[in-house]
Amino acid sequence: MSKFDDAQKIEQHLLDAALSMHREKSNKPGAEFMHCQECGIDIPAARRKAVKNCSTCVECQSLIEIKQQHYRA
After folding, report:
1. CB of 38 within 8 A of CB of 58?
2. Distance separating alpha carbons of residues 52 and 32, to the nearest angstrom
3. Which end of the chain has fewer CB atoms surrounding its CB within 10 Å, N or C?
C-alpha cells in the first residue's frame, strides 16, 4: 500500500466518525437545531421556542408540507 492509500483510509475513518457523531446528536430526543436542516439558515429563536424540536425554517417546512399534500393526493 502506498502512503496515499493509507492517508485515504485515515481520512475516510475520520469522516465516518464525524458523521456518526452528527447522526447521534441529531437523533437525540429534544435536540435543538440552530440552523435549518434543509437550507442551513438560522432558525429564529421565536420559532425554536414556539415549535419545540423544530429542525427546519418556516419556508422549508412549508415546502415539505406542500410536497406531502401533493403526494397524498
Report:
1. no
2. 8
3. C
73 confidence band (pLDDT: 50, 70, 90): low
Among candidates 70, 46, 69, which has minimal Cα distance to 58? 46
CA distances from 65 to 23, 42, 53 (A): 24, 20, 17
Give the angle 32-71-30 at the CA atoms, nearest 5°: 10
Select from 43, 27, 26 the least CA-distant residue to 35: 43
Looking at residues 49-66, what average pLDDT do you find? 92
Cell of 3: 502512503
* Cell, residue 46: 421565536
Residue 68: HSE in the Cβ half-sphere, 13 Å Cα cutoff = 6
